[in-house]
From TrEMBL:
<feature type="transmembrane region" description="Helical">
    <location>
        <begin position="282"/>
        <end position="303"/>
    </location>
</feature>
<feature type="transmembrane region" description="Helical">
    <location>
        <begin position="240"/>
        <end position="261"/>
    </location>
</feature>
<keyword id="KW-1133">Transmembrane helix</keyword>
<feature type="transmembrane region" description="Helical">
    <location>
        <begin position="514"/>
        <end position="535"/>
    </location>
</feature>
<feature type="transmembrane region" description="Helical">
    <location>
        <begin position="379"/>
        <end position="397"/>
    </location>
</feature>
<feature type="transmembrane region" description="Helical">
    <location>
        <begin position="34"/>
        <end position="57"/>
    </location>
</feature>
<protein>
    <submittedName>
        <fullName>Uncharacterized protein</fullName>
    </submittedName>
</protein>
<feature type="transmembrane region" description="Helical">
    <location>
        <begin position="315"/>
        <end position="334"/>
    </location>
</feature>
<feature type="transmembrane region" description="Helical">
    <location>
        <begin position="418"/>
        <end position="436"/>
    </location>
</feature>
<dbReference type="InterPro" id="IPR030191">
    <property type="entry name" value="CodB"/>
</dbReference>
<feature type="transmembrane region" description="Helical">
    <location>
        <begin position="355"/>
        <end position="373"/>
    </location>
</feature>
<feature type="transmembrane region" description="Helical">
    <location>
        <begin position="151"/>
        <end position="169"/>
    </location>
</feature>
<keyword id="KW-0472">Membrane</keyword>
<keyword id="KW-0812">Transmembrane</keyword>
<feature type="transmembrane region" description="Helical">
    <location>
        <begin position="63"/>
        <end position="87"/>
    </location>
</feature>
<feature type="transmembrane region" description="Helical">
    <location>
        <begin position="547"/>
        <end position="567"/>
    </location>
</feature>
<feature type="transmembrane region" description="Helical">
    <location>
        <begin position="442"/>
        <end position="461"/>
    </location>
</feature>
Length: 586
């Protein structure tokens, strides 16, 4: 073993970091993931999905209870399915799948991910462009295709910025996204609050809401009415639960978010996904529905063709422009990062930067077509159905095979480049899943669940007969040695890396934090509460709303300046720490 160590060390040193387990000194605690998921999942397309629930005719109690249950199930899925595998392997799904299933399966899967996350990234960029177009008086894009050359140029310009940041400045954007989360959550919340009196006036003739029951009456009769846009009975609570659970199926059951959660120190980080699910997919969807319904009523157009930019500007004034652009950019970059990882795995000769750039060009072209963001609900659901069987294959090999006495990595140990059981399982599971939809046995939102179980059973049976039940002692020993040498390399790197938590207790930092918390967040919240509860008539409502618009844009500017200033001070303090100080602090 000692004689092979130098050669193995040289091999590991030349490997791309993305192909190796995440070292311990790069791990993060749960607050990191709370901010990360809040920034990503409180996204500009929440305006689209919130409006979709209104158009589909969900009732108010279906929304309040259905979204709570469905998003709770999504959090549990992240915590119990994705996080354990991510922490135990410290690998992205793309790398782990290649070790398990070989070249052919990995290549097909990676290209499927490239297509899916390219579409999602493009949708986010298009949403941002719908806000920016208002500044240039570009016509609204109500068709599936672009009807304005100016809009095409605008979408390409917005996409170019997103792609270049993802390629060359992803770390900087990640830092920026981390400070966006509190502001995004606040803006989505207060947007619905500010427009509720307008909805109440259309129902009761009064602008004030005196109780929760009055909110239920107003929202139930104007927004979530139980009647769809065709005037027919809408979807019920089971559909709402199903969609909210399935919206991120590819991330939890499909294990895509191993790429993020592999950096988690402990299992509790899986629960930190609740910031994204409960704010982005609960509060934001409900609030976006309220904002969309009010904006559609004022504009006199169908909520089906309403653009997110129009909704945000009507609800939040100039700050609405910022929320659509920021939420679109931060989410587009996270998905473009995933698409870049998948593309790099499919084209290993390219660096992640070059792979991301190649994907970004496709994203830019696709972002010119509005039909992509208008199809978010089915896109997310069907994307989950396509990717979930692969999550079932990984789950089976990682959790079940050791318990059954099978060999994890059996195909690799056996020297099989094309894992036929995995390929066959994926194909048969897709036939099963889409077959269920064709015969309409269960709502398509729930198709991922039986498909996942079928993939686990099929792969276990097929792999058993293909060699998974055999033992490979030499290969297993070589794998253990590889992992030991990787850990040794990471231990050396940790000795020269500052990785201790740094707490800035200086007076200036406390003052900076107080400014962005009070002026940036508390003031808009107080003004929104004043609009909601301190507007006894229409005239006072309009005056309070105008004050909210005028002040909130300045609060937004103050928030980002001071929050970013605090972030830079924390980074500077961290960088001043010597390795010895860091080791002592840890």
């Amino acid at each position: 073993m000692a004689s092979t160590a130098p050669d193995l060390d040289r091999q590991i040193a030349h490997m791309d970091d993305e192909l190796l387990p995440v070292p311990r000194h790069k791990l993060h605690r749960w607050p990191h993931f709370a901010g990360l998921y809040a920034a990503e999942h409180v996204a500009a397309t929440e305006f689209v999905i919130g409006a979709t629930f209104v158009a589909l005719g969900a009732g108010i109690w279906d929304i309040l209870l259905g979204l709570l249950i469905g998003n709770g199930l999504a959090v549990l899925s992240f915590w119990l399915i994705t996080t354990p595998i991510a922490i135990e392997t410290r690998l992205s799904l793309f790398t782990y799948l290649h070790r398990i299933a070989g070249d052919s399966m990995s290549r097909l899967y990676n290209w499927a991910n490239v297509i899916i996350f390219t579409a999602i990234s493009a949708a986010m960029i298009t949403v941002s462009a719908t806000a920016v177009r208002l500044l240039f008086d570009i016509p609204a894009q109500t068709q599936a295709y672009p009807t304005s050359f100016e809009f095409i140029l605008l979408a390409l310009a917005v996409a170019a910025i997103v792609v270049l940041v993802a390629v060359y400045g992803f770390n900087a954007l990640t830092e920026f996204a981390s400070i966006c989360a509190p502001w995004l959550m606040l803006m989505f919340t207060v947007g619905g609050m500010v427009l509720l009196p307008e909805l109440a006036e259309s129902v009761t003739g009064e602008t004030s809401l005196n109780s929760f029951s009055s909110f239920i009456d107003v929202a139930g009769s104007t927004v979530f009415t139980g009647i769809n846009s065709q005037g027919e009975a809408g979807i019920g609570i089971w559909e709402v639960i199903g969609f909210s659970w399935a919206a991120n199926t590819f991330s939890h059951f499909g294990l895509i978010d191993m790429a993020l959660l592999r950096y988690a120190k402990r299992m509790r980080s899986g629960l930190a996904t609740s910031t994204g699910m409960m704010f982005g997919h609960y509060v934001a969807w409900i609030s976006a529905g309220l904002m969309g319904a009010a904006t559609a009523a004022v504009a006199g157009i169908s909520i089906d063709v309403l653009e997110p930019g129009e909704v945000a500007l009507h609800a939040l004034g100039a700050a609405g422009f910022v929320i659509v652009v920021v939420a679109g950019w931060t989410t587009a970059n996270a998905n473009l990062y995933r698409a870049g990882l998948a593309a790099q795995s499919a084209m290993p000769n390219l660096s992640r930067n070059k792979a991301t750039l190649a994907v970004g060009i496709c994203v830019a072209v696709l972002s010119c077509f509005p039909f992509v963001y208008r199809s978010m609900l089915p896109l997310l659901t069907y994307a989950g159905l396509v990717l979930v069987p692969v999550g079932g294959i990984i789950f089976a090999e990682h959790h079940l095979f050791p318990k059954l006495g099978f060999s994890r990595y059996w195909a690799r140990y056996k020297g099989v480049k094309h894992n036929t059981p995995a390929l066959a399982t994926w194909a048969l599971s897709l036939i099963f899943g889409f077959g269920l939809e064709m015969v309409d046995v269960i709502p398509f939102y729930y198709l991922f669940l039986p498909t996942w179980f079928v993939s686990i059973i099929l792969y276990t049976l097929k792999a058993r007969s293909a060699g998974a039940a055999d033992s490979y002692p030499k290969a297993e020993a070589a794998e253990r040695e590889f992992q030991e040498r990787v850990e040794a390399l990471h231990a050396k790197q940790a000795e020269t890396t500052n990785h201790a938590p740094v707490k800035d207790t200086s007076g200036l930092t406390k003052a900076i934090r107080a400014v962005w918390m009070v002026l940036g967040l508390a003031v808009p919240m107080v003004l929104a509460l004043r609009v909601l509860f301190g507007s006894p008539d229409l005239a006072s409502y309009e005056a309070n709303r105008e004050m909210f618009y005028d002040v909130t844009i300045w609060s937004t500017i103050i928030y980002f300046i001071f929050a970013y200033w605090e972030l830079q001070r924390s980074k500077a303090l961290f960088n001043k720490q010597s390795p010895k100080q860091a080791a002592t602090a840890s």
